Structures are given as C-alpha cells and as structure tokens.
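Translate sequence into structure tokens.
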Amino acid sequence: MARRLITVLAALYLACVAVAAFAQTKVAPAAVVPPAAIPAAQVPAAPAAPVAWSNLTPQQQHLLAPMRNKWATLPADRQQRLIRGADRWAQMTPAQRQQARVRRQHWRDLSPAERTQIRKRFDTFQKLPPAEQQQIRAEFQKFQKMSPAERKALRERWKKMTPAERAAFRAHHPPG
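Result follows.
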C-alpha cells in the first residue's frame, strides 16, 4: 500500500503540475497536455458549440492571439478548453503565473515516456474511489509539509528497505 501510495502521490503531484501548466500557457496548451490529463470536471458534458473569434472578450483575444489564424479550424471542445485556460490565466496573480510557468517548463522537460507514465498514473488515480483519492491527497499534503531534509531522509529510508521490511512497515503504518 505504501509503495502504491508513493507512486500515486507522485502521479498526483505531476498531474497537478501538468494541469497547472496547461492553465498558464498562451500558445496551444492542449497540444502539450492531452485531454486525458485534464480532470473530467473541467470538460463539458455536452458537445461544445464553436465560438467565433469575434465573440471572445478583448482579454481572451489578447491571451489567445497566437491561435487567431487557426481559431476557426479548431474543434469546438478545444476552443472551449483554450477559453477556460485564458480565463484562469487572467484570474491568476503574478506569483501564480510564475509558478505555472515553472511547472509548464518542468512538464516540457519530461521525456515522452515520463509523460506517458504520468498520464497513466493520473488515470489510475482518477479511477480510485473518492475516499481513497482523499486519503492519498491527505498523505501527499503531509509529505509536502515536511522539510526537504525530512522528505529526502524518508525517501532514502524507503529505498534502503528490503521488500519484507516495506511490507512490515505498511502493515504497522496504514495510510491516514
């Protein structure tokens, strides 16, 4: 369970990075972050209607300017995702935008294999029952609250354990 928890926590973190990166970019964010990496709650249930460029707000047009020439040829659902991303970007503070840029760069620096692995882990996480998802989020928050030294020590301790020691640890330290 702990190994699975660590794997899912890492996937959750990187998925959050990917989703935040998607929200920050002005240039074709959907080209880098696939629809599968976008939480289902952010994807409209009904088929989206195409949006004419002229119907965008001036702020949306400014943020989506790199897409202007091909806007009319984009699928309606992609237009909607780009509009939502532009709206989220407009609501971010400068610090949030900088954090999103950093996360976006981190995502870009990953190899295709790493991105695929993250997407698969994110899908696995999304299929877990809500209670288990919440439990994993809580454990991830505990991990994030640790100092960098504590996190490093925990990782090193885990790496040095044999499979039997890990099993014993999981048996005596259930998540939550």
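Note: Confidence is low (pLDDT under 50) at residues 8-12, 17-38.
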